[in-house]
Amino acid sequence: MSLIDSISLPRGVRLPRVDGLIQWIVPLAIIAIWQVASVTGFVPTRVLPAPSDVLLAGWKLLLSGELVRNIWVSFWRASIGFLIGGSVGFAFGLANGLSQLSAKLTDTTLQMVRNVPHLALIPLVILWFGIDESAKLFLVALGVFFPIYLNTLHGIRTVDPQLIEMGRIYGMTDGELFRRVIFPGALPSIFVGIRFALGIMWLTLIVAETIAASSGLGYMAMQAREFMLIDVVVLSILIYALLGKLADSASRVLERATLSWHPAFQKR
Amino acid sequence: MHTAVRTSLPETELAGRAHFAPHARVAREERQEERRARTTSLPLSIRALRKSFGDNEVLRGIDLHIPAGQFVAIVGKSGCGKSTLLRLLAGLDKIDAGSIGFGQDIQPEDIRVMFQEPRLLPWARVLGNVEVGLGRDRASGDAHARAEKALSEVGLADKRDQWPSVLSGGQKQRVALARALVSRPRVLALDEPLGALDALTRISMQRLLERVWRDQGFTAILVTHDVAEAVALADRVLVIEDGRIAHDVTVNAARPRQRGSAELAGLEGSILSHLLSADDRT
Fold it and tell me: Could you list the residue range(s) of the whole structural domain that residue B256 is in?
């Protein structure tokens, strides 16, 4: 992902000030066109309310405290689910990447489970957990598990064996070898997993909240649909987009900080 | 057992003094003399060495004695077993039969290997990569100073805080050389270390190798496919054919050697004809 980004940016033409703004031109233009289309009646407000109406709905919800509460609930579920699923996936990735026995024991099973779409488990999960928090956390964790597991495993298995041999020749202990050679070598791949996982995290959470919840952004959108509040529905969708972008940016910042050695991250 | 570690310890103290001496040149010569005396290079005795990979017998009985401090080059066609021999000497692979002796007990830091690829850690700065070479001494207080000194010996002191990815191929190989030398090894095994470099870089690396070898006086074993490189650097060139030492050629030319001189060219020609005649026979 990051590789493609870095290639598609022409290195020669970098306008330092404007550069950060360029990416916002298209979204802003879309909003402007949308506003004009709504105001002129080209798009009926029953189909798509004007951006200003959506903003107004957001403002009202913000004042009532409902918006913050729902965002917070969703954010909390997403993070906890991500942490649980991510750490379990990372642990299995490590174990199976480092130990042949562990890989033989669990990899086939995990690959089978991976091929079941985790959202297909929603009916089962509701039967198990009802619609309380654990149902959502379980689904998010399950969704996040696989991209992190697969990419951690891939990262560890593709660490240059020549570097590992070098480390051994120079007397590194197993712990040092992991800390100084294997983990840093697997890190770029692990980040790819994290970014995939972040996407799946939101997707899973929204679907779960839409189907079975009594709070959160997905629930807010479903409630609004019941009362025909189309501006709130659109608002929820926009917030998803924003949160998704936010999560992606956060992982990029982390990536930049830890992969500064990588040629793809060396600009200046 | 302890002497091996001890020899390298007072080194930095000495270098520090030399650095501040008013007559730096004199001090440098003194330091070299002292070092040559102190760095005890190791002799190698190889007896009836054999190695097979599956049904393929790569080494079929190698008998070889290398005196301490000698620069030996091993040449041969690809697949003749020269790299295998080097890996066995360096302890990277297990021997099937026979023995390799160094005349005394050795520490892991006493033998270092340099490969065709630099094998630098891309996520460690240049200085950090050199520190890897200290082995168990990495945690010691003077690790930084020793790594910096090794870096300046290969002429890369100003690159200490760079990532390896920004270095040229020759510079990477020099960092790898600094990493191999930082622990003051007594045997340095080189597996075609200059094979991937362009012609000019290769020549300057050969000079650097010759210089550090003369400075530090370790036993050097160089595997190469370049016969000109072998005669330019080595005291002795071994030609390996079919898993055995077929020829053992002594190179007596004075150092520093004149590249392209008639003496070296003649030797190169005769070694090449050995290699080619072996080709005709098969």
Answer: 38-106+186-281
